[in-house]
Amino acid sequence: MARARGADGARVPVWDRPVRLLHWLLAAAAIACWLTDSRWHEWAGYVAGAAALARIAWGFGPSQHAHFGAFLRGPRATLRYAAQLAAGREPRFLGHNPLGAWMVVVLLAVVLALAATGWLYVNTDAFWGDPVMERIHVVLGWTLLGLVAVHVAAVAWMGWRHRENLLRSMLDGRKAATPPERA
C-alpha cells in the first residue's frame, strides 16, 4: 500500500487523542466481552458503555473531525455517496465519509444497547434472569460482531481504494492532506 501522504507529502491531524483512545478502548472492551467469563464480561461491558457515552459527549465537543455536526450527512447526501461508491467514483474525505459516519452512530447505539440490556439483565429485579432480555442481549452481541466485521472490511477496502493506511491514521491521528494519486 502506498504511504498515506498527499502529493505534497503533508500529513495533517485528523483524529485527536480522545477519539483514538476511545476507539481502541471500545475495541478492547468488545474483545474482552467476547473472550471472558461473566465477571470480566460484565466489567468490560461497563467500560464499553462508558466509552461509548464518552465518545458521544466528545461528538458534541470542540474536536473538528469528531464533532457529529462536522461529519453526519442527511439521507440524500448519504445515498448520493453510496451511489458514487457503487460506481467507483466516490470522493475521498479527510474525516468520516457519509456511510462511515452513520456506521459510527450505529456502532455506538448498539454498544449502548448492549450495555443497557446487560446491566438490566444482571442488576434489576424486573429483568434478572429474564430469558427475553438475555436473548435481546445475545442478538445485539451478534449484531455488534457483524457490524465490526463490516467496519473492518470497509476500512481495509477504503484504505485500498484511496491508497491510505487508515489503521495508521487511527494510531497516530494523521492523514494525508491531499489524496495520493490513483494508479
Automatic annotation (TrEMBL):
* Protease in keyword set: no
One Gene Ontology cellular component term attached to this UniProt record is:
plasma membrane
In which compartments does the protein localize?
A: Cell membrane
Database matches in Pfam families: Ni_hydr_CYTB (PF01292)
Query: Keywords for this entry?
Result: Cell membrane, Membrane, Transmembrane, Transmembrane helix
Q: How does it sit in the membrane?
A: Multi-pass membrane protein
Q: Which GO MF terms are attached to this record?
A: electron transfer activity; heme binding
- UniProt xrefs under PROSITE patterns: PROKAR_LIPOPROTEIN
User: In terms of domain of life, where is this protein from?
Assistant: Bacteria
Give the GO biological process terms.
respiratory electron transport chain
- Membrane-spanning parts: 99-122, 142-160
Main subcellular localization, coarse class? membrane
Cytochrome b561 bacterial/Ni-hydrogenase domain residues are 14-173
State whether keyword Ligase applies. no
This chain's protein is named Cytochrome b/b6 domain-containing protein
Instruction: Show the Gene3D superfamilies listed in the entry.
Output: Transmembrane di-heme cytochromes, Chain C (1.20.950.20)
Species name for this entry? Ramlibacter algicola
